[in-house]
Task: structure prediction
Amino acid sequence: MSVTIFVPRDAAALSLGAEDVARAIAEEAATRRIDVSIVRNGTRGMVWLEPLVEVSLSHGRVGYGPVTAADVRSLFDADFLKGGKHALNVGLVEEIPYFKKQERLTFARVGLTDPISVDDYLANHGYQGLMRALSMSSADIIKEVTDSGLRGRGGAAFPTGIKWKTVADAPASQKYVTCNADEGDSGTFADRMLMEGDPFCLIEGMTIAGIAVGATQGYIYLRVEYPHAHRALNAAIDAAYAQNYLGENIRGSGKRFDLEVRLGAGAYICGEETSMLESLEGKRGEIRPRPPLPAIKGLFGQPTIVNNVISLSSVPIILQKGAAFYQHYGVGRSRGTLTIQLGGNIKRGGLIERAFGVTLREVLYDYGGGSATGRPIRAVQVGGPLGAYLPESQFDTPLDYEAFAGIQALVGHGGIVVFDDTVDMARMARYAMEFCAIESCGKCTPCRIGSTRGVEVLDRVISGQNRDFHLTLVEELCDTMLNGSLCGLGGLTPYPVQSALRHFRADFEKRT
Ligand SMILES: Cc1cc2nc3c(=O)[nH]c(=O)nc-3n(C[C@H](O)[C@H](O)[C@H](O)COP(=O)(O)O)c2cc1C
Ligand code: SF4
Result:
């Protein structure tokens, strides 16, 4: 009887040699005349174990990792196809505490299934949300999403149901659903992992969105640096069309929804929703002034949903299990789960899906196991390059939009980048300004000029020139950028700079 072996095709696993491992397993099995079936799954998100090879056995999936091609012969010798003992054996994958202690709703299938098999998707509760939505009115679908408490996971945390209602209520003969898959934030990879590991989930979420608001065309604006996600999405879209989950008269419902992937232009600003729309229209990615909101006048001037990958991919389970089920997770006004991406100087980096309310300390130590270098963790940056730097004294803050706003920080897209006590926070503040200077679209003065001047002034602080004067100048510049920028790039760059000044002042003052 054939044994099923899972070898991830996720980009992180591939970068660590998963392709060679899959090939070595196939060759060794052929040499030994053993019948194996190799499924290329997504990742379970435990990056330090990648490539994580899983063998499907009657009592569950036994994992071996991190596997290299050179380990493969010894795995066969150790009878790994029966779960045999080996130094790389990590036991039942779903019993690994890092995985077991998660609350996987959006990522329920990622790593479990064959990402591009409709049958596997259907066998694991796929398309149940869409089938339910097809039997509901537009207003009821939107109410379900609103009642679930889902807020945008792209960064701004705007209530998804309210956005959808605005599009639904806008009169127009053509409306659009666009998915923001630009994922430009440093230290974030949840969108990529979802699209590579369970692309049907995003496709289903977008289809539900289209039916809810009366949009017949969808576009996924995909970061150009994501070739594996591109392939997975296109394969899944083709399969969805072939089985009539996309296109005309979806599953006999009379509803239509078409979907295409468009590659991004490779600039951070193209992730901002109005720039993304400009770029989708084939123009240079620059901010559009608001109002009008994209929900009223978006792509090609028509009412348009712009939602992040994780927001849209959270919709199928909300429709499948109901708003109350989803709403039950979380704290305060932050409902459901957050897909936390843990990276930087950390022992066990990866993807952790937990209900809102988990503290940074729990994430950093219980999941992450502390810094990779073994030195004390001094700072973390949460929410991408525009997020604040937080010191150890704030590690007990729960991951919750309002709690983070209360400490002048952002949850953003849920990326956490860790630094140990060798970090120089003055240089990190300079880096934030430099990032803004490089990525600025140039449309408004506070960001275009301010960020360049900010780098120069911070250089003077770092080299000890007239430090008090220049520190005051940095503070004033941050105030101008915060209050005068047209969009979040210039408007939020002060977050990392000011937080570094607030919590790590000594790093700015120690220089002579
Ligand atoms: C400079 C900048 C970059 C952004 N980059 C992204 C991005 O890569 N992906 C994303 O989903 N949202 C990004 N956003 C947020 C989007 O503008 C928008 O709020 C989001 O796509 C809306 O979807 P949501 O409501 O589902 O979060 C960015 C915002 C700014 C200001
Ligand atoms: S803040 Fe920066 S990125 Fe945003 S519109 Fe102004 S110049 Fe462009």
About this structure: The CA atoms of residues 13 and 214 lie 39 Å apart. The mean pLDDT is 97.
